[in-house]
Write a structure and sequence with these properties.
Length: 257
């Protein structure tokens, strides 16, 4: 068999060195820092093409991949599909999020059990009636990792959107207009006990279930929309840092089993 490079990620199966666990941040700028976070060791870069940057590291002797997905479902779907083609079987998204419940604080992490599918990419992998649910072993690993790292975790339903502005009912966009479909939708999700907005979980969870592999999502809270629309540099740092601390500990647990 040839060691063929996948089209977008510029990786071959042999470059992954048998890794079956991948951490998926959105931002290529976060990949190196995640790969260098303890308990990971021996971090090194494998490839960088467009928004897809990949590093490999080791946790308890096992290889773990860190690949950025870019923002949103379409680019994430390419990373997930190509990593699965190369042998990855456990996917862990690590990102940031806006909370929509008043009891959630900046710096908390949200562990997604299921996601509202307001993305488009997941519908190309399974019909809309199909659920976007996290794998129970990944949820358990994330909850245990949060407890181990002393990071407050909220566990529940996430809303994934294709747009940051109208889809998350933000009025501070260029036009200031939110189409009627989305006017009042944040209050509806709040009443339905949805915890947060972000932009990739539903795509990942739907694809993973459809492909028969494990996936989960942990996101650090960088803004609480019941109090503010503004993400400060400090809040961004706190949310990102806590999500990464939990994600690397969970990836190490998942790589071991
Ligand atoms: N990411 C999102 O998608 N929404 C937020 O409010 C913050 C981060």
């Amino acid at each position: 068999m040839t060691d063929r490079s996948v089209y977008h990620l510029a990786l071959t199966a042999s470059m992954l060195d048998g890794a079956t666990v991948a951490l998926l941040p959105g931002d290529p700028g976060r990949v190196e820092g995640i790969a260098r976070t303890a308990p990971f060791t021996e971090a090194r870069e494998l490839a960088h093409k467009r928004e897809y940057r990949t590093w490999i590291a080791r946790a308890a002797g096992r290889p773990v991949i860190v690949t950025s997905t870019g923002i949103g479902g379409p680019s994430a779907s390419i990373a997930i599909d190509e990593l699965a083609q190369l042998g990855v079987r456990t996917f862990l998204r690590v990102g940031t999020t806006g909370a929509i419940q008043p009891h959630v604080d900046i710096g908390d992490v949200i562990v997604t059990t299921g996601a509202v599918r307001l993305d488009g990419a997941s519908t190309h992998y399974a019909p809309i009636e199909y659920p976007a649910v996290a794998h129970h072993e990944v949820v358990a690993a994330l909850v245990a990792a949060a407890a181990e790292r002393d990071v407050p975790a909220r566990v529940g339903i996430t809303c994934t959107t294709d747009t940051f502005y109208p889809g998350q009912e933000r009025y501070d966009s260029f036009s200031g207009y939110v189409p009627r479909r989305f006017q009042g939708i944040t209050e509806e999700w709040r009443r339905l006990h949805v915890l947060n907005y972000e932009m990739e979980a539903a795509t990942l969870l739907t694809m993973a279930s459809a492909m028969g592999v494990r996936a989960g999502c942990v996101a650090g809270v960088v803004v609480n929309r019941t109090r503010s629309e503004h993400v400060s540099a400090d809040d961004l740092h706190r949310g990102e840092a806590n999500a990464v601390r939990v994600a690397v500990a969970a990836a190490a647990r998942l790589a071991a089993c």
